[in-house]
UniProtKB/TrEMBL annotation:
Name recorded for this polypeptide: LPFR motif small protein
Native organism taxonomy: Bacteria, Bacillati, Actinomycetota, Actinomycetes, Kitasatosporales
Domain of life from the UniProt record: Bacteria
InterPro entries for the chain: LPFR_strepto (IPR049849)
């Protein structure tokens, strides 16, 4: 019972983490591309 609940929570947490981090990755990629010339790393 507890293991099933833990598996569900883990899958939900993973989905939420993916949805939450996607926009941050996009923003980080935008800022990274904009500041790549300034910082000198890809």
């Amino acid at each position: 019972m507890l293991k099933a609940i833990a598996d569900v929570l883990r899958s939900i947490g993973g989905a939420i983490a993916t949805v939450v981090t996607l926009p941050f990755r996009a923003v980080a990629r935008l800022f990274g591309g904009a500041s790549s010339s300034a910082h000198g790393h890809h």
